[in-house]
Every structure is written in C-alpha cells, then in structure tokens.
Amino acid sequence: MLKIPKYAQSADPSRLVKILCKGSCGKVRLAELNLPYPGKELLKKAEMHKYRARCLYCGREAVDNYNWFV
C-alpha cells in the first residue's frame, strides 16, 4: 500500500499518481489527476493533455502522462 505523505493526505486516493515534478520540486512527488486513474496501460496510451496531474507539493501541472505511475 502507498504511504501517503502529509502534503498529499487531502487528495482523492483514486486519483493519485507519482510524477517527476518539473516544477520547484525537481523530484518524484505525488500528484492528483484531473480524472480517475484508468490503469497504467490506458494512462500511458492516452492522448497528451487528456490527463493532467497537479503536483500536490508545489502545484505545477504536468501533461506528460507516459511516465506516471502508482
């Protein structure tokens, strides 16, 4: 089970993914998707910009869904 750090505890667990944040974090952080998590393969194959992930630490939004994971 994923241990959720304090900065992400208010997020919807069904929308959490790990991303490499390219904002002020510059490292792997938890982010919240704009849509429910569809599974690894569907997320990887989805069109760019269909899924967005907002870093729950710094707030930067990412759209490069090919390398997000749970």
What does this structure look like?
There is one protein chain. The chain contains 1 helix and 4 strands. By secondary structure, the protein is mainly beta. The protein has one domain. A 4-stranded antiparallel β-sheet has the order 1-2-3-4, with no helix packed on it. Strand 1 and strand 2 form a beta hairpin.
Number of domains as seen in the coordinates:
1
Order of neighbouring strands in the sheet with most strands = 1-2-3-4
The whole-number mean of residue pLDDT values reads 92
E-strand count: 4
Shape: globular
Describe the structure concisely for a colleague.
This protein is mainly β and 70 residues long.
Spell out the blueprint of helices and strands.
Elements: E1 16-20, E2 28-33, H1 40-45, E3 53-55, E4 61-62
Antiparallel strand pairs: 1-2, 2-3, 3-4
Based on the model shown, name its key terms.
mainly beta; 4-stranded antiparallel β-sheet; 4 strands; globular
